[in-house]
Amino acid sequence: MYIIVYVDDFLIAGKEEDIRKIVKELEEEYELKNLGEVNYYLGINIERTKEGNFAFNQKNKIEEIVEKFNLKEAKPTNIPMDPNYLKEEGEDDILPNNTQYRKAVGALLYIATVSRPDIAVAVNILSRRNEKP
User: Fold this and answer.
1) Are 118 and 85 in contact (CB under 8 A)?
2) Alpha-carbon distance 12 to 37, whole Å?
3) What is residue 4's three-state secondary structure?
4) What are the structural domain ranges in the chain?
């Protein structure tokens, strides 16, 4: 059984009989509100596959980041970064200041950590330039 807790929200996953038992025990101490099968938690979309497994994605969070940093017109690609890319000194900044750059890299780091390990190396390379984007 798994119990995931964040402040006053929690998820319980496991065998149905075990879940019922723990919920009953928790209800003896706390007022609970059962929201049913989870589909979104802490910025993560959660889907159950036909096989009964869970699939996670952060499509909504990624779209929010794209909007926040005005990247809707950016060209999509199948790889996170050109393998030969390393920004050179003196290259024009894409973002207006270091703060915006750091926020963008931080948002991408969160995505890489939670659901997109495929972008981790690219985000790491970008984070090396936090002081001079």
Assistant:
1) no
2) 10
3) strand
4) 2-56, 59-128
**What does DSSP assign to residue 119?**
G
Handedness of CA 98, 101, 107, 113 (dihedral sign): negative
Q: Residue 119 has which token pair? A: 């972008």
pLDDT range class, residue 26, cuts 50, 70, 90? very high
Given phi > 0 = left and psi -120 to 50 = alpha, else beta, which region is 49?
Answer: beta
**58-108 pLDDT, tens digit each:** 999 999 999 999 999 988 888 888 777 766 565 655 556 788 889 999 999
H or E element that contains 10: strand 9-13
Joined tokens for residue 22: 């723990």
Considering only CA atoms, which of 56, 71, 16 is closest in space to residue 1?
16
pLDDT digits (tens, 9 = 90+) for 27-56: 999 999 999 889 998 889 999 999 988 899
The predicted model scores a pTM of: 0.69
The tokens describing 126, both together, are: 């970008």
H helices present in 1-132, as ranges: 16-29, 59-68, 98-114, 120-127
